[in-house]
Amino acid sequence: MEDTSKPFSIPQTTIDWLLDSQTPSIRYFTYKNLLNRPDDDAMVQSTRTQIGNADYTKAILAEQDKAGFWYNPKHFYGPKYRSSHWAMLLLSELGAAPEMDALQKGADFMLRRMAESKDTYYSIDSYLDSTQSGFCCYWGNWLRYQLYAGNHDHPLVQQVIKIVSKDVMRHGRCEYNNHLPCAWGVIRSLFGLALIPDERRTTETHNAINEGSAFILNQFELTQANYPNPGKVHPLWFRLNYPLFYQADILFTLRVLAELGGLEKANVKNALAWLESKRKEDGTWRGSSPYKSRTHPFVSGMDGPERWVTLQALTVLKAANQGAR
Fold first, then answer.
1. Domain around 169
2. Average pLDDT for residues 221-247, to the nearest whole number?
3. For residue 221, is pLDDT > 80?
4. Bridge-partner residues for 174, per DSSP?
């Protein structure tokens, strides 16, 4: 039977609006994710160079010590959301070139710091203890920027891949969620595992991705947010936010599932319809930035989170349409 469905298309006015952004990162991901420009495309290369020279990138790097850390070598998690851990996460989210010297120094610092840490939550030895409630939102993010920096084969990264995979299998139980399974933790863990190329994923990693996706989509419902929690659903869940850090919302979850090729699953349709329903008449989405005053700059000029959110929503919907063919 002939497929009569219309191919997914993005209005040219929306593309033009994104490419008119003063933020090079937004233009870069528009070329890459929405227009499918290859890495060697002249505009892709030029725009990525501009990310390194952008005012927001320079502002982040201006606060980095020459030893690779931000603010304090002993306190990589605080202040939120400006210290080393968060700065590294944001740089990778902004599309800074992985080979950038400052990004490599930051990744190396966090590798050394984790190897040396004696803290209960951040110590590899403590995290390996199966009696510990997981802190997998942290480790999933840590894994994300280490893999982004190209450190897949580092022994410590390999160790974290194993323990993050293990933590996902027990659904990210966390003491901050009354030792219950944690949706944010599972999603952030999948965010880290998603950067492992498929051909390099072990059986354990594949199992963790499948189990984590099933927890998010099959055992519970994205648009109901009926995951185990001791109180009310966090208000961020039903907003469209950028940037987020250890948190997650529906859009971020769909982004992670898109990277994992999980948008073809039947149980994701309600969430995709919900996302589509949030689109404004002009073809864009309204965005929120709950931590803007607490983190580094992430836009240039008059740009706001709505361009980031629109870019990510369209990337998800494009991936969902392609996966359904």
1. 57-323
2. 94
3. yes
4. 180
